[in-house]
Inverse folding.
């Protein structure tokens, strides 16, 4: 038996098909995962993401510590609650994990990291933190629900007190705010407007029930995967891991090379790779029948690559994928499918945003 | 528990076969199979007129999760295919024994039917999985 979130019984009660996800028993779907996908693109859906790891970092050297640990520069964060997408690397530039950091003050931050890499992440954070005046506090007393979709704000209005709702009404993307016992952030993993809500574990079932009563559709890992892939968002362990760098993973935009005097772990390796050249992560589109899948070989002008994530896109009605290929890739690629070679289009790795195709 | 109609025959590879009483047999995949595969997104069917033998891979059911070969449970000629699945592959999920049928075969030798499983034997075979 795997670890269970406080919402395990609620999932089973809702008829979820439970599967193992990196040691956690999580819902794959509650019925049709394609309908769950459409609920998020067209109205509102919610995900139990309590398996993710929340780490609070506090202390005199919190900012200095995170400027060294993370590839993006937390010194850019000035507003209370501002969030930043970033990652932490090993000395060779390999991605240990990608994460979101929230800035409360220069001495207080919150990290939300993946569940798949929990032990290694915590070990690494503790190890690097040993040289800084900071305290590291894993918040396993907290659970987390992602509420995503164009009607998310209206749904939160239905479940929050008018006073609480007023504090987050119209909140810009990538901000987090403490609202009573809830920490509500305008972040997500779907390419839609929405929220990620950190809630004390003993209150999460009440919140889930209230959202259900407000007609928010429970959505499982299946829909989460098709939504994030349409949005061009990476999945750790699939699109990147310790064997590749952010530059090879469409995450170069989140690496702050400026200011040049900021040292961060992996910086030297990234600078060398930038000079030498490297593979890149691109999007693939196949309008023929069939589904591009993880692990399939991709042949491009510059050589060979591999599909890191592939799926059927419910919003577009055909298959999309992310692939790591040589940098001098052209506009098309060949994929070795079941018993045939198929020509696919090469695009930027983003397919759907806010319910609309961006191809 | 999975729905396994008693009036059908089954292959261990999860196809069902309905005797239409006129020497033709309708074929689909079981409720258990569609449940394992998840939401169907494409169904590739044989062509009308194709001659098939028992065990040939004649169709592909592709779901969000995986592509799965469908094998001919009896030999003969394909005389009809379910063209509605082109636009509504979800019929295989929603009604696997009805609107989700795949193709119909005019049997060469209806004696082959004796090699297939009845509902109890099919149920026993999936309980072992």
């Amino acid at each position: 038996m795997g670890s269970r979130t406080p919402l395990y019984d609620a999932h089973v009660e809702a008829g979820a098909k439970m599967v193992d996800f990196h040691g956690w028993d999580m819902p794959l779907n509650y019925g049709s995962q394609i309908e769950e996908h459409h609920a998020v693109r067209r109205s509102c859906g919610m995900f139990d993401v309590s398996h993710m790891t929340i780490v609070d970092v506090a202390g005199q050297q919190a900012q200095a510590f995170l400027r060294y640990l993370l590839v993006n520069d937390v010194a850019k964060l000035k507003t209370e609650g501002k969030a930043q997408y970033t990652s932490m690397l090993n000395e060779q530039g390999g991605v240990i994990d990608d994460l979101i950091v929230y800035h409360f003050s220069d001495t207080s931050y919150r990290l939300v990291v993946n569940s798949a890499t929990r032990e290694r992440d915590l070990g690494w954070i503790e190890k690097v933190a040993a040289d800084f005046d900071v305290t590291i506090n894993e918040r396993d007393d907290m659970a987390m629900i992602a509420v995503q979709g164009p009607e998310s704000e209206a749904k939160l209005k239905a479940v929050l007190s008018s006073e609480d709702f007023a504090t987050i009404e119209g909140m810009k993307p990538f901000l987090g705010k403490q609202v009573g016992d809830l920490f509500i952030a305008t972040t997500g993993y779907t390419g839609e407007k929405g929220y990620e809500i950190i809630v004390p574990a003993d209150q999460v079932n009440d919140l889930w029930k209230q959202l259900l009563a407000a007609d928010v559709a429970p959505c499982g890992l299946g829909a989460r995967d098709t939504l994030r892939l349409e949005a061009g968002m990476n999945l750790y362990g699939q699109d990147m891991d310790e064997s590749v760098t952010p530059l090879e993973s469409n995450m170069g935009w989140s690496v702050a090379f400026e200011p040049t005097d900021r040292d961060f772990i992996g910086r030297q390796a990234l600078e060398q790779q930038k000079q030498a050249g490297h593979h890149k992560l691109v999007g693939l589109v196949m309008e023929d029948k069939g589904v591009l899948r993880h692990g399939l070989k991709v042949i491009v002008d510059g050589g060979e690559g591999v599909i890191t994530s592939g799926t059927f896109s419910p919003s577009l009605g055909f298959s999309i994928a992310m692939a790591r290929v040589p940098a001098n890739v052209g506009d098309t690629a060949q994929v070795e499918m079941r018993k045939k070679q198929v020509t696919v289009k090469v695009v930027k790795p983003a397919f759907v945003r806010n319910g609309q195709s961006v191809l | 528990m999975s729905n396994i109609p008693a009036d059908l025959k089954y292959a261990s590879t999860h196809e069902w076969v309905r005797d239409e009483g006129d020497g033709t047999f309708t074929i689909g995949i079981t409720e258990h199979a569609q449940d394992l595969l998840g939401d169907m997104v494409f169904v590739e069917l044989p062509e009308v007129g194709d001659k098939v033998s028992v065990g040939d891979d004649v169709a592909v059911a592709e779901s969000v999760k995986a592509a799965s070969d469908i094998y001919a449970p009896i030999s003969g000629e394909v005389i009809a295919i379910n063209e509605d699945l082109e636009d509504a592959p979800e019929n295989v999920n929603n009604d696997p024994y009805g609107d989700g049928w795949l193709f119909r075969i005019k049997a060469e030798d209806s004696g082959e039917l004796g090699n297939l499983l009845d509902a109890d034997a099919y149920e026993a075979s999936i309980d072992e999985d």
